[in-house]
Design brief:
The chain is mainly alpha-helical. The chain has five helices and two strands; from the N terminus they run H-H-H-H-E-E-H. It has a two-stranded antiparallel sheet. A hairpin with an 8-residue loop joins strand 1 and strand 2.
């Protein structure tokens, strides 16, 4: 995986507004206005957030008449999950060894 793509994804996920938009998109596709509804920011600002998510590959946009609804990209977070899995495995292994060590001390 290209490190720049991963950096784009992690940077996009670093903003709470964009994470909230992704959470909304878990329910299904949404228009820009629907994504903007819970926020007190201008539509151009919302559009910039959407562009960051789209550039990072976390969402896609389709065309439906005059609207361009957004939806989660099926593989968008898979790259982040794959990257994190290696670290998750390391920490799970360390915690398992700690648990074993603590059990031996107890006995």
């Amino acid at each position: 995986m290209n490190a720049d793509r991963l950096s784009l994804k992690l940077q996009a996920l670093g903003d709470p507004t964009r994470r909230a938009m992704l959470a909304r998109l878990r329910q299904g596709e949404a228009t820009v206005n629907e994504l903007a509804a819970p926020f007190t920011m201008s539509l151009p600002a919302i559009s910039k957030h959407i562009k960051v998510l789209e550039t990072a590959g976390l969402i896609t946009r389709s065309r439906a008449a005059q609207q361009r609804p957004c939806q989660l990209s099926p593989d968008g977070l898979r790259e982040v999950d794959d990257w994190m899995r290696a670290y998750r495995d390391i920490w799970e292994d360390r915690l398992n060894r700690l648990e074993t060590y603590l059990q031996t001390i107890k006995e």
